[in-house]
Amino acid sequence: MESQEKPQEVLDALLKGGKVVVEDRGRFGDLEQVGYGEREGRRLVLKDYEALYLLSSGRLRVSDEKGNGVTFNRLAEMSQERSGDAWTKFIIYRDLRTRGYIVKDGFGFGTDLRVYERGDFPEKAAKFVVFALDEGTEREVEELSESVRQIIKMGKEAIVAVIERRGEVIYYKVGRANFHK
Question: How far apart are CA 163 and CA 95, in angstroms?
Fold first, then answer.
């Protein structure tokens, strides 16, 4: 599989107010071109899962406001404290990115992410909406059905990502089915 990303040198970022930010405006275009971050004024803000991915792959160096290095474990703990699904999103994000997909935040269906077909970003809209289920967790069928209905209504393909206890991600394409008596 061919990746859309080219090898890059290590990028410096700051942890400010609980957000990982890149202030080197010369790098904004490179990052945005391959689907990382969102501009906020004169800085590019990375989602926690994006920062964790770049940090884990050795492409990001994060420092706090005092200039101390922020480790992967520290950032993961902080992310998990802010959002209980941070680790789940990171696991799915990492898996999809390593498969060559561009991944952005979802539409609010719980732990969801928009996934762009390879080569479509930023010209075309996301093709898939992936939402997570950790193995062993329960979810109401009605809730799942409503999420799938809304995703299909938006013209996207609904994908459920099940994260096994070992951290492996398995994807299931989900559609609507009507059962009649």
Answer: 11
pLDDT category, 1, cuts 50, 70, 90? Answer: very low
Token reading at 40: 């906020």
State the burial class of residue 6 (Cβ atoms within 10 Å of its Cβ: 0-12, 13-18, 19+): exposed
Q: Encode pLDDT of 22-75 as tens digits.
A: 998 888 888 888 999 999 988 999 999 999 999 999 999 999 999 999 999 999
Contacts of 68 (CB under 8 A, 6+ apart): none
H or E element that contains 50: helix 48-56
Q: Is-contact 113 127, C-beta < 8 A?
A: no
Give the CATH H-level superfamily of domain 11-82. tRNA intron endonuclease, N-terminal domain (3.40.1170.20)
Quick one: which of 74, 85, 115, 112 has its CA closest to 97? 115
Q: Output Rg (C-alpha) for the chain, integer angstroms.
A: 17
Q: Which of 81, 121, 76, 119 is nearest to 94 (CA)?
A: 76
Mean pLDDT across 2-12? 64
Q: Note whether 13 and 110 are within 8 A (CB).
A: no
Of 3.60.15.10, 3.50.50.60, 3.40.50.300, 3.40.1350.150, the CATH number of 86-174 is 3.40.1350.150
